[in-house]
Design goal:
Two copies of one chain form a homodimer. With 232 residues, chain A is an alpha+beta fold. The first copy, chain A, is 41% helix and 16% strand. The longest helix of chain A is centred in the middle third of the chain and has 25 residues. The relative contact order of chain A is 0.10. Chains A and B meet through helix 5, helix 6 and helix 7 of A and helix 5, helix 6 and helix 7 of B. The structure holds a DNA duplex (30 and 30 nucleotides).
DNA sequence: CTTCATATTTAGGGCCACCTAATTATTGGT
DNA sequence: ACCAATAATTAGGTGGCCCTAAATATGAAG
C-alpha cells in the first residue's frame, strides 16, 4: 500500500539503502550526508538529491541539515540486500572456490541481479548457514538479523583467551594479511601483550609465534572470550 | 587499441550486441533497425540512437536506412554475452535445481553482473559442458562457437527417426509443453504423419502415444536424423 | 552573541537510454 | 517513372544519477 512497497528499486537506491543501514545511526545521531557520500564514493550533492527521492518513496525520514533514518520499509529493503550479499559470499566461497578476500567484489555486483528465489536456493544448498565467511550474520528472508555482541580484539585483556568471530569484508589486503598470520573466523588465540597509547596488541595463536597486530587492525576484529586452550 | 576494446559496456549495449548477434544477418541482409527494436522491446528511434553510439565505438558498421553488421569486436562482445548466458543456464539447472523453462530470465539478469572469472569457474565445476540445457552450443572463453546444422522437426520425412537437439529458451510455455509430452534434448522419436498445408506433424516418442505438434512449434525444434530405435 | 569553519542543500549542467511526433529515405506496384 | 506504403532517422523531451560551483544552515569558539 505504501510508496516503498510499490517502488522497484534501482541499483543505486539499493546501494544507498545498504550504505545507510550499515552506517547505523539512531534517534540521537542520524546518518549524515557526508558519511553516505564517503561510503559510496559520490559527491555530497548527489547524496542530497537521492535522499530526497528516497524520502519521497518512503524509505527514510530526512531531517534537513541533520541526517536520515531508515523507515521500516527502508530497513527491510536494506536487510534484503545484506542477506543477498552474505548468502552470495557463502555460496561463492563454498561452491566456487573463492577466497574470503576476493569474494566481496563479486557479491557486490551480483547482489543487484539475483532473484530472491535464487538466493534462497543458494542458502538451501548450503544448509542455510547463519554466518558469512567473515562471520557476519545472515538475515532471514523475513528480515531478521542476529545482533552480535563482539569485543574488539584491541579491548581484550593481556592473558585472555578468545576466538576471532568477525572481520570486515571490505579490505582484501587486510583479509590476506590475517590469513597469512593464521587468523580466520573461529581461530582461538591468547593475548600476550598490549602496548599503551594505542600501540600494538600481541597475540599467540595456539602453538604459534607471538604476532603483533596494529591497534587499528585490532579494533576492527570482533572477538568472543573463550576458555583457555585445552580447558573444558 | 581500438575504441571497442577500451569501452566498458553498459547493460544496454550488451543487450543490443547480443540481440544483433542473435538476429544474424550477412552482407546481403544486414540486421534491420525494426528487428532489433522488436527483439529488445524498445522504440525504433531508441535503436537508431544506440546504433550510432555502437558504430562510433567500433562494434558495428551502420549503413543508414539499410541496417548493421557486427565488426569482429562486436561479435566478440556478443559471444561473450552468449557464453555467459548459456553457462549460467547450465549452472543454475545442474546445481541449483532450476527447470529448463525457468532458467532463462534468471540468466538474463545475471549475465550482466557476473565476472568472466566466475563464469569460467561455473563452467569448470560442470566439466565445461559443450551445450546448454536447451541444446545451444556454449562459446569458448576465446569466442569460438560450434555451428550446428539441425533440421527443423517440420522438415523431417514421415517414417524417419530423429533426435531433438535444440529448442529456443525464450518461451517458458513452449518448454513446459514439450516436457509434458516427453520431449527433451536428446529424446528420440519417429515421425508418423504429416499433414499438408503447414498442418501438424505427428510423432511417436519410443513406446508412447502418437503426438501431434503444430507446424509453428515443429519448425522451432532443431533435430538430427537418427537410426531407427533398436538398430545398430 | 557574533563569527567562522564545516556540513548541507540548491542551482545548473552532462550523459545515458528511453519516449513520441515529424521528417526523410527506400521500395514495390501501376 | 511516379506514388503510396513502409522503414529509418532527426527533433525535441523526460527521468535517473552523477558532477562542480554557489548559497545557506549549523554549531563551536572567541
Amino acid at each position: 500500500m505504501n510508496a516503498a512497497a510499490s517502488r522497484v528499486l534501482t541499483r543505486s537506491t539499493e546501494d544507498y539503502l545498504k550504505a545507510i543501514y550499515s552506517l547505523g545511526g539512531d534517534a540521537e545521531l542520524p546518518v549524515q550526508t557526508a558519511a553516505i557520500a564517503d561510503t559510496l564514493g559520490v559527491a555530497a550533492p548527489s547524496v542530497s538529491g537521492m535522499l530526497r527521492r528516497l524520502a519521497e518513496a518512503g524509505f527514510l525520514e530526512h531531517i534537513p541539515y541533520r541526517g536520515v533514518r531508515l523507515t521500516d520499509d527502508g530497513r527491510r529493503a536494506a536487510l534484503r540486500m545484506v542477506r543477498r550479499h552474505r548468502v552470495l559470499e557463502c555460496y561463492l566461497t563454498s561452491e566456487l572456490g573463492y577466497d574470503w578476500d576476493s569474494v566481496h567484489d563479486e557479491a557486490e555486483r551480483l547482489e543487484h541481479a539475483v532473484s530472491d528465489d535464487l538466493i534462497d536456493r543458494m542458502a538451501h544448498v548450503l544448509g542455510n548457514p547463519p554466518y558469512d565467511p567473515h562471520g557476519a550474520p545472515i538475515p532471514t528472508p523475513g528480515g531478521e538479523v542476529e545482533e552480535l555482541k563482539h569485543v574488539p580484539l584491541a579491548d581484550l585483556e593481556v592473558g585472555q583467551w578468545a576466538e576471532l568471530r568477525m572481520v570486515s569484508d571490505k579490505d582484501p589486503e587486510r583479509l590476506r594479511f590475517l590469513k597469512s598470520v593464521g587468523l580466520d573466523v573461529g581461530t582461538r588465540f591468547q593475548v600476550v601483550a598490549r602496548q599503551p597509547f594505542n600501540g600494538p596488541v600481541t597475540i599467540c595463536v595456539a602453538g604459534g609465534q607471538p604476532q603483533p597486530l596494529g591497534n587499528e587492525l585490532a579494533r576492527s576484529l570482533g572477538c568472543a572470550a573463550r576458555e583457555p586452550e585445552g580447558a573444558a
